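User: I'm new to structure prediction. If I give you an amino acid sequence, what do you actually give back? Let's try with this one:
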Amino acid sequence: MHPPKVETFDLAASVNTDPKGFHRPVDTYRVEPWGLYMARPADHPQFHYLESWLVPSMGIRATIFHFTPGHERDQDRYVDIGQFDPGPSRWTSRDLYLDLVVRTGRDTRLLDVDELLQATAENLVDAATAEEAITVAAAAIDGIAAHDHDLDAWLGSLGMPLSWR
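Assistant: Good question. You get back a string of structure tokens that encode the predicted 3D arrangement of the chain. For your 165 residues, that looks like this:
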């Protein structure tokens, strides 16, 4: 089991440093009072571009993956549960293992509970942090489901309108 993945978002340099330490050029950063938007190319075999919103107060990172042909997935939004620390020129994220797959208008699925439990058992996260992750995931699932499994509608209803490229 791996420790929580940490990522940095350097607004001044327009760089995103992934959990493995690779520096990725960012096309767009946009800061809102409630979150950070990032859009950047990806050199991944399954997707060529990604867009994300980090929403610290909700403990989530919402992503749209632009898949390469043949690697499409039946999902509209992918949500990482984590801890997000904003700064004037640099943000950081710490992934807390749990993920949600949102299929707008259909369902929201919780993933990787086994990873969170294993990380807790191996003392990679403490019990309070694991509880926080579960609480955040449950609140997000409830909010998304209450808006017909529409992540954007849920956050919009809370005064956090998402816009994508």
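You can read the tokens as a compact description of the fold. Here is one thing that stands out. The chain has a mean pLDDT of 96.
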